[in-house]
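User: Structure please.
Assistant: Input sequence and predicted structure:
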Amino acid sequence: MGVIFRKTGRLILGDPGNGSQKFWKAEVKGNSVTIHFGTVGTPGTTGCREFKNYEAAETFLAQRVRKKLEEGYKPEI
């Protein structure tokens, strides 16, 4: 799809007009990935996952981004 996040990224799903818009964002810090997700306008939920090295964390993030894009999420503009 051409969208690859190397260190951080934010995706949006849904229509802001009907109030069902969701967000998903992630960030690589060192060898961990922090993901923050939820409904726009709420605090959302945050989780963190540790990996053996930076490359593994970056690969995990790229896989998750591809999955979210397949689910219909779009980059925030």
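The radius of gyration is 13 Å.
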